Amino acid sequence: MRKKIITSGSTFIDIDAFACLFAYKELLDLKKEEAEIVVTAACNSSVTQKYKDLNVNKTDASVEDVDFVVIDVSDPDHFDKIVKLDNVSHIFDHHPGFESYWSEKIGEHAVIEPIGAAATLIFREYEKENLLEKISPSSAELLAVAILSNTLNFQAKITKEEDKIAYEELKTFFDYSSTFEEEYFSEVQESIEKNILDSLKNDSKYINPELFIVQLEVWDSKHIIDNFQEEIDQFLRSANSEVSFLNLIELDKKRNVIICNDDRTLDYLEKYFSEFDIDREKKIAITPHVMLRKEIITRISKHTTIYNR
Ligand SMILES: [Mn+2]
């Protein structure tokens, strides 16, 4: 059997990819298969310092005569640049679009399913191989935190029952406490706040020139609003769009606080989302439950024609 290189996407590694790489390498170790993690992309803010310190990956290695296992991405255009497409042996992903491409190429070695986190698919591999009892506390914690993060505390629509079951099971394999979720998300929020402008930039999107939506996922929205109102207003204004807002997803309270710059944007939201609680004085709209940017866009596009640019 050829050596395996385990890798992920080219732009950045989030905690889901990071956890999967670590835990899948451990699974191959347990199976006595030779494998190495190689990643050239940087980690994003979902990978907190505690996990970064695990130093899981190399940034270069010989890629001659190896097979590639690619996790948390299946669009070949977004693979880490080290990947040789013809030598991909396994794919684990939960993003749609390339299911048939890969199943034609590598058959059942392509596991691409709509599920909350790729980490749940790796958890499933441990179960399949009957090796869950041997999972290390680090791998169990990483897979758990990946599920927590990618499902947004189980609020994202893509969350499946299997994600919840995996999470409950994984909790028993590391030192879990009831403040685990809050600790993780608060640490992510701290790193977002440390570099608020970059954080806003990194998750902002022009849906078309007239509609600009920024998204942040935080534990405590009040802390962001109290400390960064000015930066946020300025950033939204600089987009120069007809409508621009920050979709602040508040994971603790399981809702969004949408921060708007002006009445025009509030009018716009009111028109499409009668269920939002709009506060004209504070220029915010509060949703009854968590809504991702893509869900907001889907709703708007049902009523209008949105041209993506
Ligand atoms: Mn993922």
Explain this structure.
With 309 residues, this protein is of the alpha/beta class. It folds into two domains: 3-176, Alpha-Beta Complex (inorganic pyrophosphatase (n-terminal core)), CATH 3.90.1640; 197-303, DHHA2 domain (Diaminopimelate Epimerase, Chain A, domain 1). The chain has eleven helices and 13 strands. The protein has helices spanning 15-30, 49-52, 99-106, 118-128, 137-150, 161-170, 180-194, 196-202, 221-238, 263-272, 293-303, and strands at 3-7, 12-13, 35-37, 42-43, 66-71, 88-93, 110-112, 204-208, 211-218, 243-250, 255-260, 277-279, 284-286. A six-stranded mixed sheet has the order 8-9-10-11-13-12. A five-stranded parallel sheet has the order 3-1-5-6-7. β8 and β9 form a beta hairpin. α5 packs antiparallel against α6. The structure holds manganese (II) ion.
Bound molecules: manganese (II) ion
Subunit arrangement of the protein: single chain
In the predicted model, the low-confidence regions spanning at least 5 consecutive residues are none
Tell me the domain tally.
2
Compact description:
With 309 residues, this protein is α/β, with parallel strands linked by helices.
Key traits:
19% strand, Diaminopimelate Epimerase, Chain A, domain 1, inorganic pyrophosphatase (n-terminal core), 309 residues, alpha/beta, binds manganese (II) ion, 2 domains, six-stranded mixed beta sheet, 40% helix, five-stranded parallel beta sheet
Write the layout of secondary structure elements.
Elements: E1 3-7, E2 12-13, H1 15-30, E3 35-37, E4 42-43, H2 49-52, E5 66-71, E6 88-93, H3 99-106, E7 110-112, H4 118-128, H5 137-150, H6 161-170, H7 180-194, H8 196-202, E8 204-208, E9 211-218, H9 221-238, E10 243-250, E11 255-260, H10 263-272, E12 277-279, E13 284-286, H11 293-303
Parallel strand pairs: 1-3, 1-5, 2-4, 5-6, 6-7, 9-10
Antiparallel strand pairs: 8-9, 10-11, 11-13, 12-13
